[in-house]
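The freezer alarm interrupted the setup, so I double-checked each line after restarting. Inputs confirmed:
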Amino acid sequence: MTAARLRRLLTGAYLVLFFGYLFLPLGIMAAATFNSSRFPTVTPWMGFTLNWFQALWDDQRMWAALGTSLMVGAGVIALAVPLGLAAALLLDRLHSRAKTFLYALMVSPLLTPGVIVGISTLVFWREWFGVSGGLFLTVVAQSSFIAAYAMLLFSARLERFDPVLEEAALDLGATHGQVFRRITLPYLMPAILSASLLAFLQSFENYNTTLFVRGLDTTLTVYIATKVRTGLTPAVNALSLVLIALTILGAVVYEILRRREARRQAGSVTV
Amino acid sequence: MTEVLRRYGPVLTGVILLAVALWLALLVVLPQLMMIGFSFRPSLPPSKLGGPEDVFTVRNYLTLWTNQIHLAIFLKTIWASALVTATTLAVCYPVAFYLAQVAPKRRLPLLILMLVVPFWINELLRTFSWYIILAFNGPLNAILLNLGIIDEPRRFLGGDGGVIVGMVYVYILFMVFPLYNAIESLDRNQIEAARDLGAGWLRIHRRIVLPHAKPGIAVGCIMTFMLAAGSYAVPALLGGPNSRWFTEIIYNWFFEGGNWNQGAAYAFILLVLCIGFILGAMRLFRVGLADIAK
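Predicted 3D structure, all chains:
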């Protein structure tokens, strides 16, 4: 009995430590935003201030970098989500060794270090097409692996799709185009939304790949890294705090959508 | 293939095949092959390309063996990444086991959400948070000074220690989710049965939980090692000139040394290292590729 209680106590202590370890650094980073010290820290505490948000707001280069990030993110959604969708649709109808091979090829960018994705894209496009680093290559390089994430999301949803629906529509005289527009696409809509959100977040936070293909363009993540190394002020913390708040919001929305979807799936089984 | 055609019709099938071909050829396979081919050529000015000096060579690969500094950094990248992987595994296993087998069902959604949220936060920002903690006049030095453990502030930034600590923090969530998913599918009755038959908890873990968790351990280790060995953000922020990472050497070949062929060779060496680790882990834990990309 006491041994069981001791074990529970130790487990509890370990969990508190673990979650403290996960969140404390972020808390310290957030707290440093409000310290009027010129260098971001919490020790010593020099008094509460909101000035660093003002400094951030006035930072023109930050806004330019944000604009670049948004453009890249939109480009990645436009390119990676359709590619992932096409790949999932193809895989769903294959049952041979071709499927295993294609699948391995498609997920291989996820198991490749990001720097190598960037390097190979950079070398290839310069040698074959004379394209050098910039917005376009950033979108292309990021999409090469983000399309794989999209493919996995679409495949998971297609796995639960009832092909009888499509069969029935075809038997009743619908064209392939109509079936796709009226049945397959609406069914995949939630996955298209979550794939777009995931693609955007992945693109927005990407650093390793972007670094090699960005040319003279600076995304927000690259800008933050540059600021940390040259000219760090708590304005960087203010930016981090804003981004974390937005990310948490996005993550919670994504989780709610996913769970609602899972519940609906579970419910429809009994129908 | 006929089923694809029957299901989607000729037009849609054409579009699908074209999109997949474009993705895999232009974005995945050809760039990799190009990079590899590029690494076996000497770095020449444009006027000499295609000339008599533009020949197949392994010189770019020999550089790593002849340059003692680069070789030392390469080897350090390997052992430090392995250390990061082993540490995250040790830290995450109890958490994953608790969440998957012990935690009350009603508390689980919140706990999982508390893991998911940091997972979503930008890797660079999570690294930056450790920059603040480890800074010379940061909170870690302040606490250690106050506790009397050290007499004067230490430089935690700019060394291998800071980089490794940062990596454990940044990549730990890539270990905890695969572990959790693997242990979660274990039937609790198996643990109960083992306990009823008199097995202690050490034996239960060694004989039942760990073997069952093998695919998860493999996936977690592969992801963590790959991310650590290929990391640029963490060493760039938390490291310094004395704690360079192999990825930083590669970056310098491209953007400071201006020798892309040499950089491509180093990149390919890094890729081979990661593939080697993946194949090794798959053999060791006897898992397939389909288990990995879930």
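Quick read of the result. Chain A has eleven helices and no strands.
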